[in-house]
Design brief:
This protein has 165 residues and is mostly beta strands. It has a single domain, classed as AOC barrel-like (Beta Barrel). An eight-stranded antiparallel beta barrel has the order 1-3-4-5-6-7-8-9. Strand 8 and strand 9 form a beta hairpin. The chain starts with a helix and ends with a strand.
C-alpha cells in the first residue's frame, strides 16, 4: 500500500511539473530621459561630496513606455568618480501590459564627462505588470539642464524581462 501511495504521489508531482509552463526571458531595449533636481544642498563628508536627487523622467521608444519618479544618492569622490544608487516607481507599459513596477539600481559615473553605467532590477509589479521581473543594463550621459531640471540626461538600456506564467 505504501509503494502504491508513493507511486501515485510521484506521478502527480511529475504531471504538475510538466504541465507548468516556464516563463522565457524576453529581450528589452529602449531609451530613457531622466530629470534630476536637488533634494537638498550637496554636503561634504570627508573627501566625498554627497548629493541626493529627486528624479523623474520618461522612457520611450522601446520595451518600457512610461514615466518614473524616485530618488538617487550620489557619492562624488575626490578623483571625480561617482558611485550611485537609487529607486524609482515606473508607471506605464511593458510589451503592451500596463501597471506599475518598482526598480532599484546602482552604478558608476564620471563627474567630468557626465557618463554613467547602471544596472537596474525591476520587480513588485501591479496590474498587468504583476509578476514581472526585469534585469537591465543602461548607459547614458548627464549634462545641461532642461527646463524644470537642475540636470538632465539621456541614455539607452538593454536586458531582459520575464513575466510570471
Amino acid at each position: 500500500m505504501g509503494s502504491l501511495l508513493f507511486a501515485c504521489a510521484l506521478v502527480s508531482l511529475v504531471a504538475a511539473m510538466t504541465s507548468a509552463e516556464a516563463a522565457r526571458p524576453e529581450a528589452a531595449s529602449g531609451e530613457f530621459f531622466p530629470c534630476f533636481n536637488y533634494a537638498g544642498p550637496p554636503r561634504q563628508v570627508g573627501e566625498n561630496l554627497i548629493i541626493t536627487f529627486n528624479i523623474s523622467g520618461a522612457s520611450s521608444n522601446g520595451t518600457f513606455i512610461g514615466s518614473v519618479e524616485g530618488t538617487e544618492l550620489d557619492v562624488v569622490h575626490r578623483d571625480g568618480s561617482i558611485t550611485l544608487h537609487g529607486t524609482f516607481l515606473f508607471t506605464g507599459s511593458v510589451n503592451g501590459r500596463s501597471g506599475t513596477m518598482l526598480f532599484s539600481y546602482e552604478g558608476i559615473g564620471n563627474a567630468v564627462t557626465g557618463h554613467e553605467t547602471l544596472r537596474f532590477v525591476g520587480r513588485q509589479g501591479t496590474g498587468g505588470l504583476a509578476g514581472i521581473y526585469a534585469n537591465l543594463t543602461a548607459e547614458g550621459d548627464v549634462g545641461a539642464p532642461n527646463p524644470g531640471c537642475d540636470l538632465s540626461g539621456a541614455g539607452t538600456y538593454t536586458g531582459h524581462v520575464v513575466f510570471a506564467p
